[in-house]
Amino acid sequence: MNKFKKEIICINCGKKFYRYKNHEDTEKAKWCSMECRKKWHIGKTWIENGRKFIWIENGKKQRYHRYIYEKHYKIKLKKNQHIHHIDNNPLNNNILNLKLMTPAEHCRLHSRKNPFYIQCRICGKTFPFKRTRGHIQETCSHKCGASLMWEKRTT
Ligand SMILES: [Zn+2]
Ligand SMILES: [Zn+2]
Ligand SMILES: [Zn+2]
C-alpha cells in the first residue's frame, strides 16, 4: 500500500476508498462520492443565522419548523402559508409552538414591539433577535460572539 494514501470507509455506504494523506481534511474524507455525501446528510439538522434547517432529499435544505409542521399534519405548505413560532423563539420547533398564518397576519405580529427571541449558540440564553445589514446575530453578547468565532475557526 502506498504510504501516502489513507484507506477510508465511506460513512454512508461502507465502501472503502483512498485519499492522499495530505488531502485529508476532515470534511472531504468521510464520503466516497458526492452522491454518498448528499444521501448521508438527509435528515441532518443545523443552525444558521439563528434558524434551524434540515437537509431533505436531493441535497435540498428546508426550514426545520416548516418540515416539522408538514410532517405532523401530513401536508405540503405553500409559499404563502407562514408558520409562526408562538413563543417567538425560532429554535423552539415543538409542534405545539407552531401556528399556521397568512403572511399579512404574520407580518403584523412581528412588529418592533414584538421581536423574535433566539437562543444564544454558546450559552443558551434567549435574547431579542437583531438583524443588522443582513447579518444575523447568533450570540447574546460580545463575549459569546468571540467564543463562536473561535469555534468556527477551530472546527
Ligand atoms: Zn459511499
Ligand atoms: Zn413568526
Ligand atoms: Zn451567550
Could you give a short description of this structure?
With 155 residues, the protein is α+β, with helices and mostly antiparallel strands. The protein contains 4 helices and 11 strands; from the N terminus they run ββαβββαββαββββα.
Structure write-up:
The chain is an alpha+beta fold and 155 residues long. It folds into two domains: 40 residues; 113 residues, no CATH class. Helices cover 25% and strands 27% of the residues. The chain is built from four helices and eleven strands. The chain has a three-stranded antiparallel sheet with strand order 3-4-5. Strands 1-2 form a two-stranded antiparallel sheet. It has a two-stranded antiparallel sheet with strand order 6-7. A hairpin with a 2-residue loop joins β10 and β11. The longest helix has 13 residues. The chain is flat. The chain starts with a strand and ends with a helix. The model has no long low-confidence stretch (mean pLDDT 84). The structure holds zinc ion (3 copies). The site of one zinc ion has 8 residues, from loops.
Topology:
Elements: E1 5-9, E2 16-20, H1 34-41, E3 45-48, E4 51-56, E5 60-63, H2 64-73, E6 82-85, E7 98-101, H3 103-109, E8 117-119, E9 126-128, E10 131-132, E11 135-136, H4 142-154
Antiparallel strand pairs: 1-2, 3-4, 4-5, 6-7, 8-9, 10-11
Work out the radius of gyration.
20 Å
Please tally the helical runs, counting DSSP H or I stretches of 4 or more residues: 4
Main-sheet strand order equals 3-4-5
H and E string = EEHEEEHEEHEEEEH
First-last Cα distance? 30 Å
Q: What is the overall shape?
A: flat
- Described by its quaternary structure, the protein is single chain
Mean pLDDT figure: 84
